[in-house]
Amino acid sequence: MITTAQIRAGRSLLNIKQSELAKAAGVSLATLNNIERGIGDPRASTLEALERALFQAGVETETDGSTETVRLHRLARPSAYETYHASQRILESLSRDSLLKVQHILFFTRRDHALRDAEDAVKLCLLLEGRVRTVLFDQVSFTFSNGGRAAETSGILLAAFALHGDKLSMLDRPIEDTTLAPLADAVERLKQTPWQPLSHPKMLIDTFDDWDEKLERYGSRTGHPLGDLVRLVGPGQVVPALNKPV
Known about the structure:
Elements: H1 4-14, H2 18-25, H3 29-36, H4 44-56, E1 59-63, E2 68-72, E3 75-76, H5 86-94, E4 104-111, E5 122-129, E6 134-142, H6 147-164, E7 168-170, H7 183-192, E8 196-197, H8 201-205, H9 211-218, H10 225-233
Parallel strand pairs: 3-6, 4-7
Antiparallel strand pairs: 1-2, 4-5, 5-6, 7-8
Helix pairs in contact: 2-3, 2-4, 5-6, 6-10
């Protein structure tokens, strides 16, 4: 079970306020304040919620009876199994309450070495740079190959443009498969590749698909996120970039 000292240390590593951790863990600010001050006897479920929130933010804690350790994983690459629900994890990371505290978002496309020349061989991926942690989502299959995939991908773009419109960048062409490289090497390679501001999803989608065709096919469907995305940013008029190139 996580200790009071580990909670304080984990919060310090993430550079977050008590209120931010309390909200992420679903506990009251007063409860967390008392725990960190050593007041009272917190419930096991409360400590588990705090430990889970810190773990999801990249903080790992261990206690062996005589030693308490706290470490922050500054780089993360969710595995293929974990990204079975990748869109939900990305949406959680993009939310304003996320402990990641997004600073920059890079959308890029990679060529899936396993599919080679298949129609959906190019996958849309993300690099999320947070305040103290970077998460690479490249073991994912975001495409516009069918209605379900298009809805999933549009939902992510909608959240990114709605919540972080001034923090978006992209690569202007597909790159070789980043999943073949170790995490640190893949992230460094992406950072060394020139980024350009992303001011409209058409700029990105047209690097690997046809925005106008997808807009015609899915944009008018009731409840489809692509329609909401278009209502937010417009159908395809590229507006002046709001952010600076990285």
